[in-house]
Structures are given as C-alpha cells and as structure tokens.
Structure prediction request, 296 residues.
Amino acid sequence: MGRANEYQCVPPGRRERAVGNGSDGKERPAAWIAYGKLVRLFRERAALTQQGLADAIGYSVEQVASVEQGRRPAKAAFTEAAERVLEAGGALRVLQEDVDRAKLPEFFQDFASIEVEAISRFSYDPLLIPGLLQTEAYARALFTAHCPALENEVIDLHTEARLSRQQLLTRSPLVELSFVIGEAALTNPVGGPEVMREQLLHLVAQATLRNASIQIMPAVYGFHPGLNGGFVVLETAEHRRFAYVESQEVGSVVSDPARVSAFDLRYGKLRSQALNPADSSHLLGRLAGEKSQHER
Prediction:
C-alpha cells in the first residue's frame, strides 16, 4: 500500500507483539507476560504464595495465577494493591500503560503507541462518535455488534482499553484536541435511544473541556474533504507529525511529511466548513433533549 516510507508505524524497538501461547492456545501479549513475570518475582521475594498474595490484595488465587501467566491483564486496582503489598517500587505501575494498550485491537496498537506521546490530536469521524469521546455503553454496543462476533472477555478488554485511552483528554500537560464529527454519527442509534441520549449528553459535557473543540459537520453540506473517510493528524512531543487512517479494521500510520501535510490541509478545510463549537454544542443539546422527550 503506497511507498514503503509513507506507512511507517513505530520504530522496531517499540513495537510490541504477542509471544507465547496460553493453555487455551491463544497468543498472549508480550506486555502481559512481562508484567506477570515481575509479579511472580516480587511475590517470591516477599515469600508469598499465590494464595497469600491473593488474600493480601483482595483477589482470587485464580486471578493472581492468570496475571502471573500472562493470560489476563492486570487492572489498575490490581497493580496499585500489588505495588503496596509487594513493595515493587513502581516497577509494576510503570508497565500498566503497556498492559492496557495490549488490550486494544492489534491493528490499532501501533497508532496507540504514538497517540500517548501526542501534544496535539485532531480527528474527523464521519459515521461514529470518536473513541476518545465514547461512553462505556456506546463503546460496548459497538464491540458487541462486531462481525465476526467477539467473545465476552474480548469485548470487556476492548471496552476497558478504549476508556483507558480517554485519559488523553485530561492528562498533564494538556493535549490540544479537536474533533470534527459527522452529523450522521449523532443520529445513528448505536445501542438504542437511551445509550445515544447518554452519549449526546456526554459530548455536551466534553465540549466544555478547555483543551478540546468539538464541531459538527452538517449532513446537508454537500462535498467536503472528509467524504473520502475519517482520519487523525497528530504531533508528538518531539514535534514529529503523523496521520492515521483506518477502514474495516485495517489501520495505517502515515509519516511521510508531504502526505501528512495533505491531511493537515484537509483538516483545516473541514474545520472551516463545520459548525463552530458554540453552534455544535447547541445542536448536541437539542438532539439530546429531543431524545429525552421521545422517551417520555
């Protein structure tokens, strides 16, 4: 797809791939395996059995064993409890971000590795609410409707990972964020009326963030540069610029400066053609109110 230097993902040293298989034959992400080995090391240094650690942190012995074997990712609460009991000195905490990222769909993980370093992130989403702005119910509805169907555990992992990415909205230092969302995404009843009403109200609240701008692209506008599909442009702390495009679970990170510049130009045109942030907030509020009235 394109020239080799146009679709560069992350440097080889940063790429994380699944290695090893669990008893069920499924591949286990490298981050989960590394984290599990550290838990076991610290547990044995503390002269604790798996049952002893489970009792001390309030988890079942099956959960502790699964984490140590890399079959299940540790949640933040597990990590904080294990840090305290095992006196790990932050060694487990520093891996939590990698553990969470490995919950994401594999095709998205390369971009997610870059996204965490962003100082600015601008996106256009024509058909769905962008992941960084989704409620848990909306995200879960999307993963539940996935084709082919996902196992319940995978749905849970993907939902947790998507919500974890939303830390980007409020982290320090603040990331400059812009979202242009197609009007069709606001009227498509993903998950049903109640889920959409909650989602619209959530967008109204997120629009008040001082580092985030939400604009709606009207459905009746006619031709605009976003009709070819959604995309993201971002800049990292090292002032490297990337674009990201995705369709049907195939994602490409674009690093070639000329092509990234073209995405920048398209995004600038989209922002100028979309409703301004104030009018967009009014539209979101009106649609949420209409759904509330309809449910009564």
Q: What stands out?
A: The chain has twelve helices and eight strands. The mean pLDDT is 89.
